Structures are given as C-alpha cells and as structure tokens.
Amino acid sequence: MANRTLTTSIIAKAAVRILENELGIAGKVYRGYEDEFEKKVNGYTVGETISIRRPTDFTVRDGAVASNQDVVEGKLTLTVNKQKGIDFGFTSKELTLEIDELSERVIRPAMIQLANQVDKDVHLLSKEVPNWVGTPGETVKTFADFAKATERLDEYGVPQGDRSSFLSPADFWGLMGTQTNLYMNGPATGAYREGTLGKIAGIETFMAQNVATFTAGTRAGSPLINGSITSATITYDAVKDTMTQAIGIDGLGGATQTVKAGDVFTIAGVYAVNPVTKEPLPFLKQFVVMADATAATNAATLTIAPAMIWTGAQKNVNVQGVTDLDNQAVTFVGAAAGNFRQNLVFHRNAFALVMIPLVSPPGAVDVARESYKGVSARLIPYYDGVNDKSSYRLDILYGLKTVDQRLAVRLSGSA
C-alpha cells in the first residue's frame, strides 16, 4: 500500500491523543469548567477568565422555631493564562511516512515533554495546600505512613470516591517494598512483578517523576503572632472570595529571614474543626503562606490561607485557652531552608484544570485545531522552500486553580 502525505489535521489528531494519554496528575483533577466558558467559533485567547462559586455552609437549628440564614457565596476566578508549545519540523520525504512511524519517532517524545509540563504546573499547586502530614524530609515507607493522609482527608469529611495520590519515586518505591510482604496475592504480585500499587485505602496511587520539591524559608528563632487577632478580626463576608488573611509575626531570627509561599505553620491553641459539625478536631489547624515575605528586624507580615473564621456557618477554627492570639507561638512545618518532596493525596475537586482551543490566527494557513477527551491543541505549519522543510508549532492553552484546599493533603513519611 502506498504511503500517503500527512496533513496538518492528521498530525494534530495524533498529537492530541498522545498528549491526553500521557497526562498524569493533570488527568486526575476536575475538568468540568471548560463548559463554563462561552462557546466561540474562533477559540480563546490568553487572559480569559471564569468565576467559580465556593460551596456554601449552614448551621443546623435546634427546635421548631425557624431561624433564616443569609446565603453568603464566595467566588474564585480561574484564568487561562498558560500557553505552552512544542515546535518541530519534517522534510517532505518524512511527511510521506505512515503516521504510526512518525508518532513514535517525533510526535510522542514531543508530547511527553508537553504533558510533563502540564503535570508539573498542576503539581506546583501543592504550595497552596495547608494540610501536611508526616515529617517533612522523611520517606513514605509503610502503610501507616500513607494512611496519615487518608486519615486527614477523612477527618475533614472529604468524599471517599475520586481520591488519587502522586508520590515521588523514592516515596513510591519505599511504599512498594512494604506491599511485597503482604499476605494478599493481588497487591503483593502487582507490587513485585509489575511495579504497580493500584488502590491503597481507596486511593489510586501513582508514581510521578516530576513531583514538586518545596524549599522552605530561612525562618528561624521562636516566632509569635504579632498583633491582635480575635473572633471579630475577620468575617467570612469580607474574605469569601480570597479566603486569605494578613497576620503579623515577630520573634524571627533577624532581618532578611524569609518565609516562603508554601510554608505551613500552626498557632498554639488554634484547633481544626469538623467542617460539618463544627466540633473541634484533636489537632492544630494548619495554615499556608500564600506569598513570599522577608523580615524587617525580626518581624514580618504574612498573607495566609485559609482565613480564620471563628464563628458561624463557615467556622473553620476552634480557639482554646485565649480570646486573642497576640503572642501565641507559631510553629512551622519542616526545618528552615529544607528541601521537601511534595507528595500529594487529593480528591478530584481540590484542583481544576481547563484546557481550551486557541484562536485560529488571521493569515495563518492550514491551521488544525483538535480536541480529544478535554485536551485541545492547535497546530500551525510554515514552510522553508529553500530546504524543502515543513515546520510546525503546536500550542496548548490552559488554566489552573486550587478550588478547595480542604480536599488535599501533602504527605511525608515518618522518622
């Protein structure tokens, strides 16, 4: 059978299918918000946004007397602001090859790189997750280590289904070694012969070579809350769209000490609560720093999430022993300036990814825009007549958002 000349559309179709198949963590997050964008004939441009409503909470009344509650809805903004691409070229001779051969030689390696970039960007959202269990720097080596993440999700009432975990190679293989000792033929055989873990405690478990590494700030000393923080300091209505709060700390080791976006800490006397019953949980609430900060003398102002809501339907902290957090001890998770792998365990709805078609540029010829299972790619050719070479630029456009921080947890092992 004679070879056929490959068209832009054929190459784009092959590329987008390989790209979708190679996605790791990006394939396990929520993908439904593409439908929220206005349908356009010519595609989308960088910078377009949609609004996502935060779920509402209510308190349960006691008795027969009605007590109406105001419905206060917050919203998030998701922006499609990441345009990534791969560029490659073929001679006319190469374009007469069968698509299977071209896919293996050129398209698949290119799409693997592009998929890894999307996965890396999704994994970097771990810096916005305040929940962190285990001891940073320790490898996950046992089921008990892994189960700490499951326990934390359960404590926060996270739905049982649609949970996934992505572990660094060291943590994945550390956990794998324990599975080969099980007296269960399926899991033990899969771990030993296939190098697969499957579901553990109801969580799909994967190894990811591009798990993010977080470098903590140089924060040292004995930091304390600097300034009054009481039940009246912040209302949900004031922070419903950002769920962030500015707080002061002092007692750092001196000027130029840093606190990094992604640093996690607890405050003495501030406990987590069950999101449904609002009853206190037996562990301190964890907060995450959302922007880098540098100390002046020994003090700094931090932007943190979530904001502390002391009362009402959106209550998320239970403060014990004090009525004002001024001078309460602040304890950071992990050693100062440490490098920590960010293993993630999460429910699908914790993060959102939208990937939408790029515009077909005016003046461009033979543009191919293909979508497959929620993945969209645009391929544009341009020709070098001197060298008889066809070059192609393949672009994707996407946006990412941490939708609900409560639905994810960072996981480290135990000493």
From TrEMBL:
Known Pfam families for this protein? P22_CoatProtein (PF11651)
Q: What is this protein called?
A: P22 phage major capsid protein family protein
* The organism of origin for this protein: Camelimonas fluminis
- State the taxonomy lineage: Bacteria, Pseudomonadati, Pseudomonadota, Alphaproteobacteria, Hyphomicrobiales
